[in-house]
Amino acid sequence: MATIDLVDVRKTYAGNVEAVRGIDLAVADGELVVLVGPSGCGKSTLLRMVAGLETITAGTVSIDGAVVNKLEPAERDIAMVFQNYALYPHMSVRQNLEYGLKNRGTPRPVIDERVAEAARILEIAPFLDRKPRQLSGGQRQRVAMGRAIVRQPKAFLFDEPLSNLDAKLRGQMRVEIRRLQRTLGTTSLYVTHDQLEAMTLADRLVVMNAGRIEQVGRPTELYATPASLFVAGFIGSPPMNFFDMDFLREKAGDSIPPLPKGTDVIGVRPDSIGIEADDAPAIPLAAVVELIEPVGGESHLHLRLDGSDQLITVEVPGRPDLADGARVTVRLSTAALHPFNRDSGRRTD
Amino acid sequence: MVENRPFLNVLTHLVLILGVAIVVFPVYLAFVASTHGYNDFLSGLAPLLPGPRLIENYTQMWTAGLSTAGAPPVWLMLTNSLIMSLTIAIGKIAISIISAYAIVYFKFPFRLLAFWAIFITLMLPVEVRIMPTFKVVADLGLLNSYAGLTVPLIASATATFLFRQFFLTIPDELMEAARVDGAGPMKFFRDILLPLSRTNIAALFVILFIYGWVQYLWPLLVTTESRYYTLVMGIKRLAAVADSDPYWNLVMAAVMLAMLPPVLVIVFMQRLFIKGLVETEK
Amino acid sequence: MQTKRTIFPNKVLPYLLLAPQLAITIVFFLWPAAQAVRSSFEREDPFGGRTTFIWFRNYLRLLNDPEYLNSLGRTAIFAIGVTVLSMTVSLLLAAAVNRLLRSGKFYTTLLVWPYAVAPVVAGILWWFMFNPTIGIVPYLLDMAGVRWNHRINGNDAMLLVILAAAWKQISYNFLFFVAGMQSVPRSLIEAAAIDGAGPFKRFWTIVFPLISPTTFFLMIINMNYAMFDTFGIIDGTTQGGPAGSTNTLVYKVYADGFLGLNIGSSSAQSVVLMLIVIALTAIQFRWVERRVQY
Predict the structure, then answer these.
(1) Greatest CA span in chain C, whole angstroms?
(2) Chains linked to C by 3 or more Cβ pairs within 8 Å
(3) Which helix (H) or strand (E) holds A62?
(4) Domain ranges of chain A
(5) A195 bridge partner residues
(6) pLDDT at B5 over 70
(7) What SS3 state is found at B199?
(8) φ and ψ at A215, to 5 degrees?
């Protein structure tokens, strides 16, 4: 149980490459905070700095109130789950689980008890005497987590643990990780590039881009009120549609409600655009259907706007009675407009 | 692939049998020679079929050697060769693996310099530096000693490079997980790296054992007392009796005995040997 | 230069780990090599023990010495002969083994063991076979009307050492060729077969070009082997004779230094040899490093 505090943490590599540019973050005890962002945004580097696998160029990292900058990973009382599991191939599952405890001189009865407990929680007891190469991907992942659990550390650090699993397994493991973390109540820092994983797992979500934090908040907050163009375009699938103000004014000037000063881009989520004519206040635009993707209970329509090259995505329930090439009027719900200023990249309201 | 070419198949086998024959023939002749008496060589052609004196000849060489040629008994020379080969193989593996570990898993000043200093030894085979190396060994008082036979041959770089290459293929996360699990560098080396290197070590052992066994020039220079002669160099002394006829049967008996241990090692550890050979030359 | 992404932070430990190898390297490799270079610039009086610094005179003498130039020539002939002969035979054997599915392993075992034979022993074996008095080969040649005596005839001597050296190298080259051929994807060969290429055509147009890295690599190795690892073979057969016809560079270093006691000249020859090795190793390293990925 512990807090993790990052104060102005920076990482610069040789050749003045700034991977992490001043991160401030406070993770509360028992929280699961997810760091999400595109490749190269610095999230893994940040995690590894917390773990002690990368040196910290500037700033402080504190675990449970104590600054740990100079401490070896083993001394920080953290446990890490790696993307490639990093199980010791020549040791059995049991030996893999025991290794960290043995190195700390934990008494044998305690080791046995913890291994048994972890095996029970993760349902890996049948494999304890097998070698990693005899296990499936999902089983290996659970062993990797088991290795973290037996240590009963102050914090868990997850480095894209589900990236190597197929989609179905990923969905299952996500639920398991969440349940596990809630049961154990261990403070956790989780890195992923998958925004769906981020949305479903996080107590709080940190979106990173180019070494900086774009926004921190609850997943629902980030979804409903993205603070920047980047976050708006990153969170949510299918991604948000962006409309240039000048274009809108030209095509449907009088249906645009008053917007804050400086707004030159408006974002509208695919589920806030309709194709049926109704009374709800909306901005209408003419478009042509290019492609319809049926996805189970809904359909994703890809349309090209008249008077521009822009493709937009609209999410509608069920299967609309439309064919490729049909002309439609799309209606942007004015209750769901996200106004941004292009130069600052930030939300204007 | 299903292809019916019976003629080519027969040809293939013929070629291979011929190849094996070429490879085996000289040794066969030697074996035959080692089973005859001295007189069988006076007729102008060495015998082509085995003779009756196998036990006698081998026993004589094993126990008594050939004093006229200044060669001690084979068992003595064989022991020296064994000691030399084992020491070189084990010694080389030991110091190379820790050197490779240092170069791959640590950063420190002069690292590059150390790497190149070791690399340079690849370009300095014994034959190229015999005189001064001999002088150094003599000055250190190491002539006629096991240390003098083995230590100067231990430090070359092939084993170091094999281990370096191997360590570079081990996933980074393994070492990171071990660090998080509280393992310091030596613990990581002992608990994780060494067990994973087992096959490489075994393969290298085969190659290095043979390397040590076949050494000729170096033992020739470094040993003047017959009790330190190694088998391979001792054989030459047997065969080089002025230009008059050596005791061919006895010489060949010693030759067969000299070939036996390394050949056995190769045959029984063939898979490891091949792996070791291919890996060290990459 | 490449290291791991993460390293251990210890500062003293790496030096301790490197110490044994570096110590031996410095004492028995670098220091003697430096000595050899220094001696090559001196002339030592073997009886009086005085040494005089004579600049490049040893090297100049070498370049003007007909014996040395002869040795250079002989070494070149020897190296090329061994390389060509040994590689051709091994290539043939490897191609044959590559065609077999089951008995391949069996033949491989039979062809691999000569690697264990010491060069000097190989020399003695072949010397025995070619012995003018009792050897089987001269006997057969005599029946065909060819007189063989490598003790008198320089060309015979050269042929003998080439044969012995090539014989010993067959298993090594064989192994590498087999490994190289096995790394050619089966699908390419099958595609060629579908395209109508028979076995010989497939070999020359698909397999042989694709193993060219192996071939090139083995050429360098064989040249290296012929120049440096064959001391034993020559000492076991001809001792550099008759009349210097098999006095390769590496043998000459030994003969001049230990037997002739001409330290200065021997050192200069050693240095020249060292330069040749460096050149060959540089070529090999450059070529091989290009292909290897970690």
Answers:
(1) 78
(2) A, B
(3) strand A58-63
(4) 4-234, 241-340
(5) none
(6) yes
(7) helix
(8) -160, 145
d(CA B161, CA B168) in angstroms, rounded, equals 10
Tell which CATH classification among 3.90.1150.10, 3.40.50.720, 2.30.40.10, 2.40.50.140 matches the domain A241-340: 2.40.50.140
Residue C193 token pair? 């077969």
Nearest residue on chain B to C218, alpha-carbon basis:
B281
DSSP codes of every residue in A254-292: GGPPP--TT--EEEE-GGGEE-S--SS-EEEEEEEEEEE
* pLDDT tens digits along C217-254: 888 889 888 888 888 888 888 888 787 788 888 888 88
pTM of the model: 0.79
CATH: 3.40.30.10, 1.10.150.20, 3.40.50.300, 3.40.720.10. Which one for A4-234? 3.40.50.300
Residue B63 within any structural domain of the chain: no
Per-residue pLDDT, C292: 45
In the predicted model, is pLDDT for residue B242 greater than 70? no
Question: Of A29, A32, A26, A30, which is closest to residue A9 (Cα–Cα)?
Answer: A26
Does B181 sit within 8 Å of A100, measured CB to CB? Answer: yes
From chain C, the residues in CB contact with B33 under 8 A are: 128
Q: What is the DSSP letter of A250?
A: H
Which residues in chain B have Cβ-Cβ distances shorter than 8 Å to C199? 3, 5, 8
Query: What is the Cα–Cα distance from C182 to A280, expressed in whole angstroms?
Result: 71
User: Which of B13, B23, B84 best probes binding to C when mutated, by most C CB atoms within 10 angstroms?
Assistant: B23
B113: domain CATH number? 1.10.3720.10
Q: What's the mean pLDDT in B161-171?
A: 88
Q: Do residue B180 and residue A80 have CB atoms under 8 angstroms apart?
A: yes
Contact B125 C229 (CB under 8 A): yes
Q: C39: which chain B residues are within 8 Å (Cβ-Cβ)?
A: 131-132
CA distance B137 to chain C (A): 8
- Residue A189, classed as helix, strand or coil, is strand
The Cα–Cα gap between A134 and A82 comes to 19
Closest Cα partner for C136 from A198, B43, B38? Answer: B43
Q: Which domain holds residue B173?
A: 72-241+256-280
Residue of A nearest to C4 (CA): A53
Q: Which residue in B176, B191, B195 is closest to A86 by CB distance?
A: B176
Q: Which fold has domain C57-291?
A: MetI-like fold (1.10.3720)
Hey, are the CB atoms on A88 and B187 less than 8 Å from each other?
no
Instruction: Name the residue facing B127 among C92, C107, C253 (closest C-beta).
Output: C253
Q: How far apart are CA C253 and CA C261, in angstroms?
A: 10
Question: In the prediction, which pLDDT does A292 show?
Answer: 93
The 10 Å Cβ neighbour count of residue A262 is 14
Q: Would the CB atoms of A72 and C6 count as touching at under 8 Å?
A: no
Q: How many domains does chain B have?
A: 1
Q: Does B277 contact C175 at a Cβ distance shorter than 8 Å?
A: yes
ipTM over 0.95: no
Please indicate if any CB of chain B lies within 8 Å of the CB of A247.
no
Please name the residues in contact with B274: beta carbons below 8 A apart, sequence gap of 6 or more.
C112, C175, C179
CB-based contact B27:B257 (threshold 8 Å): no
Residues of B in contact with C257 (CB under 8 A): 130-131
Q: Give the H/E segment covering residue B272.
A: helix B270-280
- In order of A8, A172, A207, A341, B188, the CA distances from A61 in angstroms are 9, 33, 19, 34, 26
A313 membership: H or E segment, kind and range: strand A311-317
